[in-house]
Amino acid sequence: MVGGSVSMALGEYVSVSSQRDSQEALIDKERQELREDPDGELVELAGLYEKQGLSPATARQVALELTEHDALAAHLAAELNLDELEVANPWHAALASAASFAVGAVLPLLAILLLPADIRIPLTFLAVLVALAITGAISANVGGSSARRAMTRLILGGALAMAFTYFVGTVLGTTGIV
């Protein structure tokens, strides 16, 4: 459980750090474009609003007013769908991933620790599927989506991953079955 939590946290940290680097590079590029060619950027911003259905005059007026208020924020929102203040945080992602993994591992860990050896593997497999079903239901509830779809996706994906892992362990002679 600890190893999995650390592994998930490190993977999430690396992934979100890369995402953050990309976001910051885009923000720096936009900042530079605004410094070097503010008139061209104003025309570009107005063009983006025209593409969204505003008349050329209204689009230019909106672009002017938003540029006067906060040019960088206006361009980031319209061009890149970014907010400079909401750049991805790798530490938050890492901690959330570690905690999620630890909570999700409790049921399978208890099955491994508490069940007799002769039924440990199949019931741990079942415990993992139950934990995945619970995770799917919770995530669907939080996200307002279909619980059945989320649970099915997690159960099937988890079952396939465990079956593949078991197969590889069998081929390598390390299934953990004594």
The percentage of residues in β strands lies in under 5%
Gross geometry: elongated
Percent of residues in helices comes to over 70%
Category from helices, strands and their pairing: mainly alpha
Give me the Rg, rounded. Answer: 25 Å
Distance between the termini: 22 Å
Major β-sheet annotation: none
Low-confidence stretches: none
Topology as H/E string? HHHHHH
What tags apply to this protein structure?
elongated, single chain, mainly alpha, about 180 residues
What do you see in this structure?
By secondary structure, the chain is mostly helical. It has 2 domains: 2-86, no CATH class; 115-172, no CATH class. It contains 6 helices and no strands. Helix 1 (2-36) packs antiparallel against helix 3 and helix 5 runs antiparallel to helix 6 (147-172). The longest helix has 35 residues, at 2-36.
